[in-house]
Design goal:
7-stranded parallel β-sheet, two-stranded antiparallel sheet, 11 strands, 47% helix
Length: 371
């Protein structure tokens, strides 16, 4: 028996419904900035040892919720589990990040790609079910995947990259190969997210971490179109509940109008975007598009400031979005507070509490103030 949800503020904000305060969660909230995470990772022996063990993955997902009054949990996993299941041989080297043993760089390698058997990712779905049970209704659970383009970057480069030279060479020289790879990636991501939903995820997020490195026309053709292909295949509901779909493109602010056409509920924004302008552009009901809830977008480095400055920056972000609507009889502009990218591993844990508490306090006072 799945426990009923005690705090649905995040889900209601995703659906542009009035909330008592602005919900907050943080990208990479379960991670290296927490000493308890580092202890569990040491126990697991490696990052993949952590991610593939149901008990460990459950434990680290819940760790930040035991410290902070966050309004959502996000599955502890990695965006590269899907290409790993395709047989590319994912490893994590301490201090170097992820690496693939067999990158995809030629026609033969692309031809071998196919949507993986989801049974190879059973450890992820088992973790989702375990986390959902352990949450016991405290807050909703978010599942996630990398975008087709972001996965392709790692698959071609073989690791992280400073210039994306190899994947961009394929883009310009053999766009046919890249399109084949992206089609497989999109269908794999859709199957993967749907399986997370079936396992218990109550919202799903697509991380287009590297969309912002593309030229304008290339972004539409090689990133946005394939994110749209994923969204078209996703379950809209599960067990009677709507499953919100969130899309975050780092560096995607210039394409906000085009992203407003995506069939999703929430757009995540990095710290370069003005929230008031984004609200006017895609957060209000407009002609020819479904208005989006907005998520973001404090600079993660603001968390290295002193508490008074962190609070001031929280207020700046909330005020930039403006007063959310408060009419429970209809939908309207809503905001989910987050960072503009993942939290830094060097962040002092006590500063995160300052942020979370400030979001809840100031956003309540904004709703109490009549304009």
């Amino acid at each position: 028996m799945i426990a009923s949800l005690q705090n649905d503020t995040f889900l209601r904000a995703c659906l542009r419904q009035a909330t008592d305060y602005t919900p907050v969660w943080l990208m990479r909230q379960a991670g290296r900035y927490l000493p308890e995470y580092r202890a569990t990772r040491a126990q697991a022996g490696s990052f993949m040892g952590l991610a593939t063990n149901t008990d460990f993955a459950t434990e680290v997902t819940l760790q930040p919720l035991d410290r902070y009054s966050l309004d959502a949990a996000i599955l502890f996993s990695d965006i590269l589990t899907v290409p790993d299941a395709m047989g590319l041989g994912l490893t994590f080297v301490q201090g170097e990040g992820p690496r693939f043993a067999t990158p995809v760089r030629d026609e033969a390698a692309v031809a071998r790609l196919e949507v993986p058997d989801m049974a190879k990712l059973r450890y992820v779905f088992d973790a989702v079910t375990s986390i959902r049970k352990a949450l016991n209704g405290r807050v909703p659970l978010i599942g996630f995947s990398g975008s087709p383009w972001t996965l392709a970057c790692y698959m071609v480069e073989g690791a992280g990259s400073d210039d994306y030279r190899l994947v961009k060479t394929m883009l310009y020289q053999r766009p046919d190969l890249l399109h084949k790879m992206l089609a497989v990636n999109a269908d794999a991501v859709a199957a993967y997210l749907n399986a997370q939903i079936e396992a218990g995820a109550q919202a799903v997020m697509i991380f287009d971490s590297w969309g912002g490195v593309l030229a304008d026309a290339a972004f539409h053709t090689f990133s946005l179109d394939y994110t749209a292909r994923v969204l078209r295949q996703l379950k809209r509901q599960h067990e009677g509940a709507i499953i919100p779909r969130l899309v975050f493109t780092k560096g995607g602010g210039m394409w906000l109008e085009a992203m407003g056409q995506l069939d999703c509920e929430v757009l995540g924004l990095d710290w370069t975007v003005n929230l008031a302008k984004a609200r006017a552009q895609v957060g209000e009901q407009g002609l020819g598009q479904k208005a989006k809830a907005l998520q973001g977008n404090m600079d993660p480095n603001a968390l290295f400031a002193n508490p008074a400055q962190i609070k001031a920056e929280v207020v700046n972000v909330l005020n930039s979005f403006g007063r959310p609507h408060t009419d429970s009889s209809q939908t309207g502009p809503t905001h989910i507070f987050n960072l503009g990218h993942g939290i830094s591993q060097h962040t002092p844990p006590e500063n995160v509490k300052v942020l979370v508490d400030a979001v809840h306090a100031h956003s309540r006072s904004m709703r109490a103030t009549r304009t």
